[in-house]
Amino acid sequence: MERVGAARDLVLGYVRVLNAIDEAMRGAIPSLERLADVLGLARSRRISRSGHIGAYSYTVHGAGCRFVSGNGAEVDVDFEADGSEVFDLWRLRWYGLSLPEPLDVTDEDLRSAVRSLQPLLAEVRPGWFSVAS
């Protein structure tokens, strides 16, 4: 049960950092209404596909973006067509491994942690999660 608690803390940390990134990006780019708008801005070349904004570096990729904080923690997120932010167990695990004090958790523990966080998190398709609105 202790491992699931650690995985739960990891998931909550990912969500907190994702919210902080959203706030920082929207503060730095006034035309950004939601974090997913980064994709359109990069595709239209109004911003670079990679760069630094505040305490974060970012790299736009396919359907999402990878953000790295000043302490090296990585948050990779994809965006649905409606602009919602989605992530899978691999992204959560990678976040844990990138922390200053790395936390290596199993997919099984992450699955249990995500289940324990419903209704905060919703499974939007098998294996992919979003913060519920």
Q: What pattern of helices and strands is seen along the backbone?
A: HHEEEEEHHEE
Number of helices: 4
Note poorly predicted spans.
Answer: none
Radius of gyration: 15 Å
Largest pleated sheet: 7 strands, antiparallel
* Helix vs. strand class: alpha+beta
How many angstroms separate the termini?
Answer: 28 Å
Strand content: 25-35%
Indicate the mean pLDDT: 93
Description:
The chain is of the alpha+beta class. Helices cover 41% and strands 26% of the residues. The chain contains 4 helices and 7 strands. The protein has helices spanning 2-28, 37-43, 89-98, 107-116; strands at residues 50-53, 56-61, 64-69, 74-79, 85-88, 121-125, 128-131. Strands 1-2-3-4-5-7-6 form a 7-stranded antiparallel beta sheet. The longest helix has 27 residues, at 2-28. The mean pLDDT is 93.
Topology:
Blueprint (H helix, E strand, L loop, with lengths): L1 H27 L8 H7 L6 E4 L2 E6 L2 E6 L4 E6 L5 E4 H10 L8 H10 L4 E5 L2 E4 L2
Antiparallel strand pairs: 1-2, 2-3, 3-4, 4-5, 5-7, 6-7
